[in-house]
Amino acid sequence: MLHKLPPENWEQGVAELLAGLNPWLESHWNTTLVAAQSEPLYLPASKEGGFHQIQFAHGYFNSVLHELAHWCVAGEARRLKPDYGYWYEPDGRTAEQQKLFEQVEIKPQAIEWHFTNACNRTFNISADNLTGEPVDVTNFTKAVTKQMQKYQEQGLPARAAEIFKRLTFVSSSVQLQPNAQVSNHP
How far apart are CA 88 and CA 108, in angstroms? Predict the structure, then answer.
């Protein structure tokens, strides 16, 4: 078992979510969702084999959805790099760093919004910078909302659309704790 965090520490519904998604991810994409004890991380499969790992934070349900959204945005070349080859500045970012962070979060958060809707859960836009310089997130919120509406009108990217369908099926088949309030951690 690849999980770094034991299942008894996961939020309600995570085990069912992974049971509904991992078989498809593993068989079609050589990728698996892994519960991490700390911050999220994407690791490509090693040259020796194994699965690409989408490690989600602290067993949080919404972290699964957020990290899946990042995976959906990443192209084939990026999926061969740790953390898709992006920089990540942890919580505590300056206003300038936060602006850069927000630019790469628009599409993933718009996709995540669709994923949370598929699971009958509440979506919260996350600036993910609780201890950083205070910034106005109004423009970021507008940008995520606009992108979410664009996806709603024009359709989600192919992998995201397939995951949305699977999430809709899983959430209609098992109880995934609808409208649960969870941490704003991505």
Answer: 15
- State the Cα angle at 85 between 82 and 86, rounded to 5°: 115
Q: Which tens digits make up the pLDDT trace of 107-163?
A: 999 999 999 999 999 999 998 876 777 888 899 999 999 999 999 999 999 999 999
Can you tell me the distance from the alpha carbon of 145 to that of 43, in angstroms, rounded to the nearest whole number?
29
**CA 61 and chain centroid, separation:** 9
Longest dimension (CA), the chain: 46
Q: What is the pLDDT of residues 28-51, one digit of tens each?
A: 999 999 999 988 999 999 988 899
- pTM of the predicted protein model: 0.89
Specify whether the CB–CB gap between 146 and 107 falls below 8 A.
Answer: no
d(CA 64, CA 115) in angstroms, rounded, equals 10
Q: Say how many C-beta atoms besides its own lie within 10 A of residue 15's C-beta.
A: 15
* Integer angstrom CA distances of residue 164 from 21, 85, 91, 117, 131: 11, 25, 29, 9, 33
